[in-house]
Design a protein that fits this description.
Elements: E1 6-9, E2 16-17, E3 20-21, H1 25-34, E4 39-42, H2 50-59, E5 69-70, H3 72-83, E6 88-91, E7 114-117, H4 126-137, E8 141-144, E9 150-153, E10 156-159, H5 162-172, E11 177-178, H6 184-194, E12 201-205, H7 208-217, E13 221-225, H8 232-238, E14 244-246
Parallel strand pairs: 1-4, 1-12, 4-5, 6-7, 7-8, 8-11, 12-13, 13-14
Antiparallel strand pairs: 2-3, 9-10
Helix pairs in contact: 4-5
């Protein structure tokens, strides 16, 4: 494999966990900057806005600019504008809604033409699922910020948005448009931001499906880290083969 000219880096589980930055993580980012190797932080996190992510990363010792972060909420905004969606209902954390500026509609003003599904965590309820289901039956499009199955929270694997997206797809008979990883459009936007081709870039992450399988389908090299939600048994069961397996982000330099 040729040496990479750029990197796409997952956030939660790769740069940090609930416990703080991964060992050697801030030093790895500083090393990339010293060598002039560009990178983008690509995340399926929908609980914080991009500005909120910058603040959190700074608390963990990372110097990453807003324009170096690509999120599915920003991708959803672009998609809605291109499709002409103007009446939206977004099931995601309040903190992330600022990245939908000018698009996030008021459900009380009429039937939405798009339903955006992110991670609500314990905020999900039967009432909300029924509400989303009703809008889909009325003709709204289903936009999924991610289909991630689970993430690491306080040393335990926790349901992510994917299971709720799958339930709404099954009930409504409608397939969601996925705007985050592992969609080809998301990876294409990240590569465009870097100004590099897929063959020149490596994706580094802890999610076998969104980070590793998704990146390889998009033509990138994919390196799996043994941090975050990594589980040896899941790697064996998945049948997914990373191009490289690292102990952690610190090893990329």
């Amino acid at each position: 494999m040729s040496p990479p000219r750029g990197f796409l880096l997952d956030l939660d589980g790769t740069l940090y966990t609930d416990s703080g930055p991964v060992p050697g993580g801030p030093e790895a980012i500083a090393g990339l900057r010293r060598r002039g190797i560009p990178f983008r932080a690509v995340t399926n996190t929908t609980t914080r806005s991009r500005a909120g992510l910058v603040r959190r990363l700074a608390e963990y010792g990372y110097e990453i600019r807003p324009d170096e972060i690509i999120t599915p909420v920003l991708a959803a905004r672009t998609l809605c504008r291109s499709r002409g969606h103007t009446r939206l209902v977004a099931y995601l954390a309040e903190a992330a809604r600022e990245d939908l500026a000018g698009l996030d509609g008021d459900i009380g003003t009429g039937t939405p033409d798009a339903v955006i599904v992110g991670d609500l965590g314990e905020g999900w309820s039967f009432r909300l699922m029924q509400e989303a289901f009703t809008h889909l039956l009325a003709g709204a499009s289903l936009i999924a910020l991610s289909r991630d199955r689970y993430f690491l929270k306080q040393d335990a694997l926790t349901l992510d948005a994917g299971p709720f997206v799958a339930a709404l797809e099954y009930a409504s008979g409608q397939s969601a448009v996925v705007v985050g990883k592992p969609s080809l459009e998301f990876y294409s936007a990240a590569l465009t931001s870097l100004g590099l081709s897929a063959a020149e870039v490596v994706m580094v992450g802890d999610d076998l499906w969104s980070d590793i399988e998704g990146a390889r389908k998009a033509g990138l090299q994919a390196w799996l880290v043994r941090t975050g939600k990594f589980r040896e048994e899941k790697l064996r069961e998945s049948g997914i083969t990373p191009d490289r397996i690292l102990g952690g982000l610190g090893e990329i330099v």
